[in-house]
Structure formats: C-alpha cells, structure tokens
Design brief:
This protein has 436 residues and is α/β, with parallel strands linked by helices. The protein contains 13 helices and 17 strands. The structure holds 5'-deoxyadenosine and iron/sulfur cluster.
Length: 436
C-alpha cells in the first residue's frame, strides 16, 4: 500500500513539473513514506530522516518531507525529533504534496499538514509509466479494531472508492499497457460495506449481490486486464460469492494473502480478530475446495501478550493444516494507543525470537514441498523480461506470485502470458521451459 502511495506521489510531482531522480543522492526533494505497524519500522524511518536532514548542511536547498502513517501518528511532534524536516503530511492528504513542496522550496519549513484521519480522503489516481503491473487502491482505512493494530488510528475509518472511479482508473491503465492489477485495501473484501460503492439500480450481469464480487466482475471485464489480484483478505470475506467470482473469471488469480495471526482461539479472541481457528480453516477450505492449485499465503504474529507455549503450538499445527505456500512472521510490537498496548507485553524478546525462528523453519519445509508439487506442472507466466541475474534467461510470475525463470522463445514480448513447464525449484523461484 505504501508502494502504491509513493508511486502516486511521484506521478503527481512529475505532473507538477518535477523530474524523477535515478539515485537518491541526485534528488533535490526527498520524501520518506513511513510505516507505523511495528516499532522497528518507525525507528528506521526516523534514522533515515536524521541522515537526510544532515545532508542539508552541504545542500541547503534540499527539501526533506515525511508522509505515511508515522507522519499521521506523530503530528507536529515530529519536528521536535527531526527539527530540520521541511514538511510532514497526513495519510489522507497525499494530494497536497506538490503544494507543500512548493512552499518548502520557497523557504518555509516545519510545515505540518495533518488532518484527523476521518476527513474524507483525497485519493490520488496518478500512476507511473513503467511495467505491466499496477496497484489500485479501492478501500482506504479499516473499521476492524484488532487489538495490536495501529492502522485504524492512522488510516482512519473505511472508505470505499466508487466502483465507477475504480473501473475508470483500471481502464485507463489497460490503455497504457497494464496487464495485471492488484486491488488494495486493509481488509479488501469489506469493499462497499461501510459506504456504498455502487450507484443504486445497477445490477450485476452474473447475479452477484455482494459489493466486492461485483467489483471483481466489473474489473474482470476490462479489456486487456489478464490478471487480477487483491490483498489483504479476512476470513469473513471468503464467501460463496467470492469463490464463485474467482472460479468464473479466468483472469482472477487463484491466490490470496489471508493473514491468520494466530492458531490459538484464546489468542485470536484476545487479538479481537473476529474469527476462530475453525472459521479460518473453513475459509481456506472453501477457497481451495473449488480451485485446484490455489495458493494461500499468510501473516502470523508471535509473542502477543499472554501467548503461552501451548498457544504457540496451536499456531504451528494450524500452519500445517492450512498448508501455506508462504508466510510472513512478525514479533509482536506494542503500538501506543492500541487496545493491546494496555496488556502486559509478557513474552520475553528471546522467546519471541525463538518462536519466530521455529515458524520460519517450519515454513521453509512447507514452502519447499509446495514448490515441489509444482514440478511437472505448466504454469501460466506473465512475462516481465530479462531476469536480473542473467540477461539471457527471462523472468515472469506465476498465478501464485512466484518468480519463474525460463529461456525465452524468439519474438517473445514482455507483458504476454506463456506456459512454462516447471522443471526445478529454489525457495520463491521456479525454473522451467516454455511450452507452445
Ligand atoms: N506487532 C507485530 N506485527 C504486527 N502486525 C500488525 N500490527 C503488528 C504489531 N503491533 C502485522 C500483522 C499484519 C502485518 C501487516 O503486520 O501480521 O498482518
Ligand atoms: Fe489492522 Fe485488523 Fe484492520 Fe488488518 S483488519 S488493518 S490487522 S485492524
């Protein structure tokens, strides 16, 4: 999501007469897009801002700005930590950045443009010019209140963009050569639930009634879009209608990132996730049931307050049962103002580290087995172009989002789909031969 916001801001600045710099050192304007989800991410952003502001000694005209969740969370306090910062802009005001840059260039400093996160968002629809794949934000903010999570505080309540706006943006992207879109939202299947996204009286050609499957149906019909992804999921959104849409439209990838966070009902309840282990597994089963080769990836937090060794072992067994293709494991990090911040952070750092490593080692074995199952299959690969390591071999991505390396047949064009017969694998990478 931050990658998408950064790209939109870059495109906005270019539209306002600025130029992209190839290297950070060359840039006269540097904006740090920050994340607040874990303390470590904020520490990194602060360190980076400190270094950037130090370069202003030799380059007095350089503009340094901050955007993203940390800007929203800290407000004007950021200028006490980073006195030389020129501007800080909130999560729902990215569109203001060109104006803030202009003010900073004319000598103003410590400009703070941060509104309450429930102000109506200013959603930039600008995109860069590169590649075949684009991110499209469809849902901002989040109305869930998972106990550990800072997102509702810094990104505000849910706001679904009107479906006509989303479809217009993707149609325009397709006209410029984009072949793959990833629809973004914190809890993406809640699209159109908190606020209406469809005009009254519009009907779905295939009889869908839920707003998110309807959006998928509309996007799937856009000429030139050969791949559709969406992230992140929540088990409550894995409805029969969603599965029907995913089965009906061949351009929807059979992959979902469905964060589970824990396999213990006691911890899920303390986390306020709104589902049980059984609910999660039922959702996974529904998705996999009708879609052979479906790829499921997840996020897990270890060391949430009160997580015992027994709770942790429940997470291990859940991960085996769900048989994830990939998993991101995070150590719990208390975030100020969240409900969990009031609970005792009682799992020692070393034990969090141990649980983290155990899950990573388990997942390595599972990921390797998942890759092995793909050997001998033919994967539909969206061709990106020459691989970074070896120009003679080309790279693309499978529907399950794995990198696939192959020898390109003569005349192969980036942005097309080829069948690749998989012959061997490495972690996160598949190798194979093109088939006609
Ligand atoms: N501590 C650790 N991990 C967190 N995540 C969100 N909040 C926290 C936190 N306070 C993780 C969740 C989420 C991912 C984006 O970050 O696993 O799915
Ligand atoms: Fe945070 Fe939960 Fe919303 Fe995800 S669903 S952004 S974890 S509050």
């Amino acid at each position: 999501m931050n990658v998408r916001d950064s790209e939109a801001v870059e495109a906005l600045l270019v539209a306002n007469g600025h130029m992209s710099a190839a290297r950070e050192d060359d840039a006269d304007i540097v904006i740090v897009n920050s994340c607040s989800v874990r303390g470590k991410a904020e520490d990194k952003a602060l360190g980076k801002l400190g270094l950037l502001c130090a370069t202003k000694r030799d380059r007095p005209g350089r503009v340094v700005g901050l955007m993203g969740c940390m800007a929203q969370r800290l407000g004007a306090d950021i200028f006490r930590k980073i006195p030389k910062l020129d501007f800080s802009v909130g999560t729902r005001q990215c569109g203001a950045i060109p104006r803030l840059v202009a003010r900073a260039i004319s000598g103003e400093t410590n400009i703070c443009e941060i509104a309450s996160p429930d102000t109506p968002p200013d959603v930039p629809d600008a995109h860069g010019e590169s590649g075949f794949s684009a991110f499209v934000t469809i849902l901002l903010g989040c109305n869930r209140r998972c106990a550990y999570c800072i997102v509702p505080d810094v990104r505000g309540p849910e706001f679904s963009r009107p479906a006509t706006e989303v479809v217009a943006e993707i149609t325009e992207l397709a006209r410029h050569g984009i072949r793959e879109v990833t629809l973004l939202g914190q809890s993406v299947m809640r699209y159109g639930i908190a606020n209406a996204a469809w005009a009254d009286g519009t009907v779905s050609p295939n009889g869908f009634t839920e707003p998110f499957p309807r959006l998928l149906e509309a996007v799937a019909a856009i000429p030139g879009i050969i791949r559709i992804r969406f992230t992140s999921g929540h088990p409550s959104g894995c409805t029969e209608e969603l599965v029907r849409a995913m089965r009906l439209f061949p351009n929807i990838c059979r992959h979902l990132h469905l964060p589970v966070q824990s396999g213990s009902d006691r911890i899920l309840n303390r986390m306020r996730r709104g589902y049980t282990r059984a609910d999660y597994l039922a959702a996974a089963h529904r998705l996999r049931g009708g879609m052979p080769g479906f790829a499921l990836t997840t996020d897990v937090i270890v060391g949430f307050p009160g997580e015992t060794v027994e709770d942790f072992e429940h997470t291990r067994t859940l991960m085996d049962e769900a048989d994830f293709d990939n998993a991101f494991i995070f150590k719990y990090s208390p975030r100020p103002g969240t409900p969990a911040a009031a609970m005792k952070d009682d799992v020692p750092g070393e034990e969090k580290m141990r649980r983290n490593q155990v899950l990573l080692a388990d997942q390595d074995v599972r990921g390797e087995a998942a890759n092995q199952r793909l050997v001998g299959t033919v994967q539909e690969v969206l061709v990106e172009g020459p691989s970074l390591r070896n120009e003679e071999r080309w790279a693309g991505r499978s529907p399950g989002n794995k990198i696939v390396i192959f020898d390109p047949p003569a005349g192969l064009q980036p942005g097309t789909v080829v069948g690749v017969h998989i012959t061997r694998t490495a972690p996160q990478t598949l190798y194979g031969e093109c088939v006609p």
